[in-house]
Amino acid sequence: MISSKAIRPHLLIDDFSTFYMGRIAIFKNSAHVLDMEESIRDRFERTPLTSGGKPVTHYRFADSKAEPGIQLSDIVVGVLGKMHTYFTETAAEEIAADRAGLAGTSLQNAELLRDLISASHVANIAFLNHVSSLHDLDKLDLFLRFYDGAHAA
What we know:
The chain is mostly helical. It has six helices and four strands, in the order αβαβββαααα.
């Protein structure tokens, strides 16, 4: 039986270290530079990563101010986060109307994002990681209009 102390009401995700650890495990031949977040670093220290009994060392924490890659990643994640918030909070009919109203640079940007997601999917399906409902992923598909009619995940 699970103790009632172990379950915290209204808490969906306690921390995001699982997402970091998952990426490191999946992409074991890559070097990972992670934004210095003390709670994530502390979790890594409490639960050291190993593979085949050996310590995993292909990651490091860095100050984002000194890492242009982290700065760029923060911008991209911020834009994608705003987009997913929009899908969560907006009815599909309104999303379809908004998409139909895109023109010029806005339309080009939506198409570029769609093409980038599709190319990432083709290169390696593990590049894409969504924590969204199927309903919201349908809205993503509706907005970005993937060629195959299905979200690239």
